[in-house]
Amino acid sequence: MNLKDALKLAFDKGLDLVTVAPNAKPPVCKIMDYGKYRFERAKREKEAKKKQKVIELKEIRLGISIDKHDFQTKVNHAKRFLGSGNKVKVTIRFRGRELGHPEIGYETLKRFAEHCEEFAQIEKPAKMEGRNMIMFLAPKPIK
Questions:
Q1: Which CATH architecture has domain 3-51?
Q2: pLDDT tens-digit profile of 28-58?
Q3: Which of 49, 68, 98, 112 could, after both became Cys, cross-link 94 (CB 3.0–4.6 A)?
């Protein structure tokens, strides 16, 4: 159908002529109410956005010489964060002479990961970055 006939047909019906595939040979057009189409598309996108889960990154900071009770409190915080579907960044900051003993930091992070292994998996293992040692935990997928 040529362009003039299509426009006349759309005008007679009180609708719009919308180009669906402009690069096709010949271009493909559709007669529809464009305002209604835009409204429905926006509504679908809004609905899809509601169903999305935003994953946040929570940070837990440990010291190299953390006490048992403090350690358990931090593990409980991580359990709560992971239970709500967030990722956890566990950081140990080395100060002064502590920087000479990174193996103690590795042991602390390894122990932390062992305490969290029932509800978390290691996304990125412990790694030194300047004065900090960082490890990322992600919630285990639900089976």
A1: Roll (3.10)
A2: 889 999 999 899 999 999 988 887 777 789 9
A3: 98
CATH architecture of 57-139: 2-Layer Sandwich (3.30)
Amino acid 88: pLDDT: 94
Sign of CA dihedral 126, 90, 120, 75: positive
User: What are 2's two structure tokens?
Assistant: 């040529």
143 or 60, which is more confident? 60
Q: What is the mean pLDDT of residues 66-85?
A: 92
Residues 6+ apart with CB under 8 A from 134: 89, 90, 91, 124, 126, 127
Closest CA to 92 of 111, 76, 79: 111
Joined together, the tokens standing for residue 51 give: 């169903």
3-state helix, strand, coil in the chain (%, to 5): 45, 30, 25
CA distance 108 to 90: 10
Write down the domain spans for the chain.
3-51, 57-139
Nearest CA among 98, 142, 140 for reference residue 121? 140
